[in-house]
Write a structure and sequence with these properties.
Layout (H helix, E strand, L loop, with lengths): L4 E7 L6 H14 L4 E5 L7 H4 L10 H4 L8 H7 L2 E2 L2 E4 L11 H12 L4 E5 L6 H6 L5 E7 L2 H17 L3 E7 L7 H8 L3 E6 L4 H6 L11 H21 L1
Parallel strand pairs: 1-5, 1-6, 2-4, 2-5, 6-7, 7-8
Antiparallel strand pairs: 3-4
């Protein structure tokens, strides 16, 4: 039975770009020939379907699964999800705010992991019940921290919770381009290995606005960071297992 590598992405503070990085990792995985699923774990976020430009596409969203019982068929579920550029997406629906039971969340992730190569999860904050339902199945987590005072303070508050929840946690630091020199210092302060520095890209907001999925272009810091996450969490995991 196929078992996907499950990667969790957590924002150290609101608006730092965790959903964008989640989408970019999934897009880069598809471009590398893998079968990725991007899974939205933030019920009150903007939605991964919006980030990937497919909010108008038909397909299953979380509210459609809320009342289900028993096991899910992974391949069938993936076939019913909206997709773009080889990335299947399970997101929430802004028009239907339906609470999800932890058992449903766990069973859905289990089913998807049997039918995909990579599942990239946009995780909520650690104090959310959905985090508790998803975290035990995650193979590796990425903490995306902002470089400002508030962003670093938020990341510091979250880091310890992630380390307790997952054996492998890495840091990605988002900067304006002038703050990357202290990335190693931040990593040391958070006691996390630094995986990538994600410099802000002026064109990214316009791309998302026009429905261009993050990570579509191999150029830029976002795609480079997504590639590093995949190399460590997927390629590195395979190498360690061999």
């Amino acid at each position: 039975m196929n078992t996907a590598h499950i990667i969790g992405v957590v924002g150290g503070s609101g608006g730092v770009g965790a959903s964008v990085l989640t989408a970019a990792i999934a897009v880069r995985a598809a471009q590398a020939g893998l079968r990725p699923v991007a899974l939205d774990g933030d019920r009150l976020g903007g939605g991964l379907d919006v980030t990937l430009g497919i909010e108008q596409e038909r397909g299953v969203r979380w509210p459609d699964l809320a009342a289900a019982r028993g096991r899910f068929d992974g391949p069938e579920l993936i076939r019913r999800l909206p997709s773009v550029d080889g990335v299947c997406v399970l997101s929430f629906d802004r028009a239907r705010d339906v609470p999800l039971a932890a058992e449903i969340v766990h069973e859905v992730l289990l089913a998807l992991s049997t039918a995909a190569d990579v599942v990239v999860v946009d995780l909520p904050r650690p104090d959310h019940e959905i985090f508790a339902a998803l975290a035990p199945s995650v193979d590796g987590m990425v903490l995306l921290a902002g470089s400002g005072i508030c962003g670093l303070a938020g990341a510091s508050a979250i880091a310890e919770h992630l380390i307790r929840a997952c054996p492998d946690v890495w840091l990605c630091l988002r900067t304006s381009g002038k703050g990357s020199h202290f990335a190693d210092t931040v990593a040391g302060a958070l006691d996390l290995p630094l995986l990538a520095v994600v410099r802000e890209e002026p064109s990214l907001a316009a791309d998302v606005l026009h429905g261009i999925p993050p990570g579509s272009s191999a150029k830029g810091a976002l795609a480079a960071a997504a590639d590093k996450v995949l190399a460590r969490c997927v390629v590195g995991a395979r190498r360690d297992a061999s």
